[in-house]
Automatic annotation (TrEMBL):
This is LysR family transcriptional regulator. Residues 1-60 form the HTH lysR-type domain. Pfam families: HTH_1, LysR_substrate. Gene3D superfamilies: 3.40.190.290, Winged helix-like DNA-binding domain superfamily/Winged helix DNA-binding domain.
Amino acid sequence: MKLSIRHIEVFRAIMAAGSVTGAARLLFTSQPTVSRELARMEQVTGLNLFEREGGRLVPTAQALLLIEEVERAFVGLERIDRFAQAIRNFEQGRLAITCLPLFSQTLLPKACKAFHQQHPGVSVSITAQESPLLEESLVAQQHDLGLTETGQVPRGAVGELMFSADMVCVLPEQHPLLAKPVLELHDFHEIDFINLASLDIYRQELDRHFREAGVNRRTIIETTSAASVCAMVRQGLGVAIINPMSGLEAGQGGLPIRRLSLSIPYQVMLIRPELRPASAVLEPFCQALRVQARAMERALARGV
C-alpha cells in the first residue's frame, strides 16, 4: 500500500478539527471512514501520529513535523488551482511583443493601458529593437506579435496593415514656415534641416523626392531616432519631416507640426508568427492596438 492524497486529506482534516468527528464533517464523510484512513496512513508511514486523550486526538511530535510539509504541498496545489482558474478568466498570462523603439513610445503605452484595464493579471513583455534583429526574432517565433514599419511580412508569419498616415513636418516655435498650413517641397530649399540616419528607409524616400524636385536642404544634424529629431527641433536647430506617430506625440506636447503637399505614407504592420502557439489574450491585445491606431489616425486627420 502507498500513501495517497486521500490519506493526506484525512490527516490534514484531523489536524485542523482536532477530532475524527470534526474531520468527518470537514470531508463530508463518515467517522468510520476517517478512522480507517488514519489507521492506514499510520501503517503506511510507520508513524504514530496521534494520542487519544479524553475523546480528542492530540498530535504527536511526528505529526507536527509532518503537517508542515503537508501544508507546503497543499499551498502549491492551491496555487496551481488558482492559476488554472485565472487562465480561464484571462486574469493571468504573458504576452511577448517585439517592435521598433518608436512604437514602444507612441502606440503601445495607451494600448497597454486599455488592455490592462480589461485584463489586469496579464503581464506584457516589450522588446524594442531595430531591423534586422526585429524581423529575425519574428522569423524565429520568439514573440507573440511584432510591430514593423515595412510592408514585407517575415516568413512563417502573417501580417495586418494596422496604421497608415502621411509623414508630417515638425518645426520650432516662431519658424517662418509656420505661416503656411501646408508645406511644399520647395519651402525646404536652403532651410536648416534635422535628418534621420541615411539608412532609414523613409529618409531614403525623402531624399529621392527632394532630389527629383531639385531642393537642397541644409542637413545640420543626423540622428537615428524620431524622438531625438524632435528634441533637436524643439531647441530651434532646424525643421524635420518625421513619421506621423512621432509627429502626433510632438504636436500634443506643444511642438508645431504641418502637413506636406506631397503624400508620403507611413505604415505600421502587425505581425503574428504562425508557428508559435497563440496566447488566449493575444486577440484582445491586438484589438486594443487597432483601437489606438484608429484613434491616432483620426487625431492626425483633424490636425493638432
